[in-house]
Amino acid sequence: MDIAHHYVERGEGFPLLLLHGNGEECGYFSHQLEAFSATRRAIALDSRGHGKTPRGEGPLSIRRFADDLLGFMDRLGLEKADLLGFSDGANVAMVFAMERPERVRRLVLNGGNLDAKGIRPSTQIPIEIGFRVARFFARWSPRARANAELLNLMVNDPGIPPEDLARIQAPTLVVAGTRDMVKEEHTRLIASRIPGAKLAFVEGDHFVARGNPEEFDRVVLDFLEQ
Fold it and tell me: How far does CA 55 lie from the centroid of its chain?
């Protein structure tokens, strides 16, 4: 079922879509909306079941979010856009760029991962435990059911084979924090498998766009404006 996304828009020019991470909403990109809107049409949206966007029916998955993104672009009349995805948003952007290369001009992947093995054990193990606990209590608790659904995305999604990244045609920047929860070698793997991709590490943790926005924004804008 199609849904109507909640979104925030700033500026004019070529569209840049900002895709947030798991359990978050478009407000994560508040600094980027202000910085990027000076030279482009910056649009941050809440994904299905996040923020103010309705969940709709059926299961949540990274690929379903990518399908939703196509519907969002069609509703806004966007034939093509730049994409900046963070964490699960980067995974959505990866899948979308592979499936709909004609709709992406430039691609920025911040803190994405191909599978759970790409996440540091100190972060992934608690996620795995939390998922099992939430799934157990989901039969009685709607809150636990919703939590299990989100944690499932970090346990069983996106499942992208590295060789599939060769299908991405858009010029791509892969960027992560120097202390990211995504393993450095995994970030480098993603960059190495996307044709011509550039790689950058910005001082900070996984949430570097919020924690070090000045440096993060400069790196992204330098890439987008090339």
Answer: 17
